[in-house]
Amino acid sequence: MEPIVYLDNNATTPLAPEVLEAMLPYLRERYGNPSSIHRLGRQSHEALAHSRRVVADFLGANPDEIVFTAGGTEADNLAIVGTSVAAGFGERRHLVASNIEHHAVLAALRHLETLGWEVTSVSADASGRLDPERLASALRSDTLLVSVMAANNETGVLQPIAELASAAHGVGAWFHTDAVQACGKIPVDVRAWGVDLLSLSAHKFYGPNGVGALYIKSGVPCTPICYGGGQERALRPGTENVAAIVGLAEACRQAQARLGTEADELARMRDALEAHVVERISGSHVNGVGAPRTPNTVNLRFDGIDGRELVAALDDAGFGVSTGAACDAGATGSHVLIGMGLDRDAVQGSIRVSLGRYTVEEEVRSFLVALERAVESVRTHRHFIEA
Ligand code: PLP
Predict the structure, then answer these.
(1) What is the architecture of the domain spanning 5-12+259-386?
(2) How far apart are the CA of 340 and the centre of ligand 1, in A?
(3) Does ligand 1 lie within 6 Å of residue 155's CB atom?
(4) Around Cβ 282, how many Cβ atoms within 10 Å?
């Protein structure tokens, strides 16, 4: 396959070499089951305990507040279904989320709705932000849980998590944040944010696929969503994926060490990219502009364009970008952009460009050249673009 300039880091990131190095011994000779009593087992058990300390430190949490999961989707499901089922059909059966959450949150809420919970969706504003006062007006004395993502996967827009969490606590509700797109991009501190539950996923910040974690603040009741042995305090039964968990911990360590400088560098490239596009390509706009955003994410909108054609044309030219979340690739388009009030044509005309740790300026420059050509080509219905 031809090499690609990879600008789709919000979909997934390449594995960092340091992460792979840390994982390899656990894929080769350190294969013990962490529940085994012999020395190989104890070695894996110690690796798990160490990884838990590293992840907890990364989030400002205690190690016993971390549950390893098989990724962000599972962490979101455990947070939402686990706390709801733990509360049972008691006095609090009302759940609240923004209308721009990831499907991992929205589908879990829809499932609970079919089982008798009541769900309220609160709309983001045109810039993709959720106003804490707007959230407050949706809260009730029977609200059990509020779930609002820290950073949006399509626009990168950041939510005022501390204020939103404080509003939820005002009515005695728990607050969960899906921080899958925030971890590794902005500082994340569960105590500073005041959240009760927080989800993360390793493959969004240079760790392996299929591993994540849920922070559950000490004292927050949560039941498992699958059943088996006693691993992860019985909240996530099943033999632990030690190599992946070690990889997650190394990804956290790397992110912690690089956060400030990496974010500055990405923000500089992102700002230059956006300025160039808006100046050079007529009928172009930046979705979510004006709101605080993750430093790597650009959501661009072009008048008179089908974003899917543009993504295909850029792929032909050797550049990997996307129309948004993979789950929204169908005909209806992004629920996030619709949720921000964009009309159908504007939603269809949008693409996401997400830079990453390994993006270099030269790639951004060549992308901009290809983008100008691709937009012109798609607008005039010529699908072939010279690289
Ligand atoms: N939440 C957000 C905001 C995401 O961007 C994603 C991944 O696309 C997920 C949850 C799901 O994470 P995972 O792919 O690890 O299941």
Answers:
(1) Alpha-Beta Complex (3.90)
(2) 20
(3) no
(4) 12
Query: Contact at 8 Å (CB) between 130 and 313?
Result: no
Residues β-bridged to residue 94: 118, 143
- Parse the chain into domains and list their residue ranges: 5-12+259-386, 17-254
Task: Tell me the pLDDT tens digit for each residue of 250-302.
Answer: 999 999 999 989 999 999 999 999 999 999 999 999 999 999 999 999 999 99
What is the atom index within ligand 1 of the atom nearest the CA of 201?
Answer: 15
Among 296, 293, 313, CA closest to 358: 296
Instruction: Provide φ and ψ at 88, rounded to 5°.
Output: 65, -160
Q: Into which CATH architecture does domain 17-254 fall? A: 3-Layer(aba) Sandwich (3.40)
Tokens 């912690």 belong to which residue?
256
Please tell me if the CB atom of residue 181 comes closer than 6 angstroms to any atom of ligand 1.
Answer: yes
327 assigned to active site: yes
Which residue out of 183, 226, 252, 327 is catalytically annotated? 327
- Report how far residue 323's alpha carbon sits from residue 307's, in angstroms, rounded to the nearest whole number: 6
Q: What is the pLDDT of residue 324?
A: 78
93 residue type, one letter: R
Contact by Cβ (8 Å): 313, 267: no
Say whether pTM exceeds 0.70: yes
Residue 320: strand, helix, or coil: strand
Cβ atoms within 10 Å of 176's Cβ, excluding its own: 32
Tell me, using a 6 A CB cutoff, whether residue 101 lines ligand 1: no
- Rounded to whole angstroms, how far apart are CA atoms 308 and 124? 25
Helices (H), 281-306: none
Residue 289's alpha-carbon distances to 101, 119, 340, in angstroms, are 19, 29, 12
Return the residue whose CA atom lies nearest to atom 13 of ligand 1: 72
